Amino acid sequence: MSLAQKPKVRRCVCCDSSRKVVKHHWCGENHCAWFIGPLCEDCHQLLHTRATQAKIDLRNTNDPIMRIQQGLSMLTIGEWMLLEQLKREREKEVQPQRGEQS
After folding, report:
1. For residue range 3-13, what is the model confidence (pLDDT) as tens digits?
2. Domain for residue 34, yes or no?
3. Which of 20, 55, 56, 87 could make an SS bond with 51 (beta carbons 3.0 to 4.6 A apart)?
4. Number of domains in the chain
5. Is residue 5 part of a domain?
6. Is 12 contained in some domain?
7. Whole-angstrom Cα distance, residue 48 to residue 31?
């Protein structure tokens, strides 16, 4: 599939689920409305739970520096979630290879 083609089924970029996938504003809708990607309901909830734990305030603010800081903080949590998914995918690939070497 080329990058220009849209997939027939929308999938979560963090867990690959196709269940209840929504468009998510990765940096917060009030902070960077155009940066959107698909997340399932579970990963979306997890992202916001982690944002709350990190004390990221997603309320709108007139301070442009604060908006950037908050948006980048959300993006950092999203990046970490994506890296964790890549690690899980890599572990799935490596496990069968370990069994073949025995």
Report:
1. 566 657 788 88
2. yes
3. 56
4. 1
5. no
6. no
7. 15
**Residue 8 falls inside a structural domain:** no
Residue corresponding to tokens 């269940």: 19
Please tell me what DSSP assigns to residue 6.
P
Which pairs count as long-range contacts for 66-70, CB under 8 Å and 24+ apart, including other chains?
Answer: 67/30, 67/31, 67/32, 68/31, 70/27, 70/28, 70/31
The model scores a pTM over 0.90: no
Grouping H, G, I as helix, E, B as strand and the rest as coil, residue 16 is coil
- Per DSSP, 54 falls in state T
Domain of residue 69: give its range: 21-94
- Write the DSSP string, the chain: --TTSPPSS---TTT---SSEEEEETT-TTT-TT-EEEEEHHHHHHHHHHHHHTT---S--S-HHHHHHHHHHHHHHHHHHHHHHHHHHHHHHHHHHHHHH-
Nearest-angstrom CA–CA distance, 70 and 51? 10
Residues, the chain, total? Answer: 102
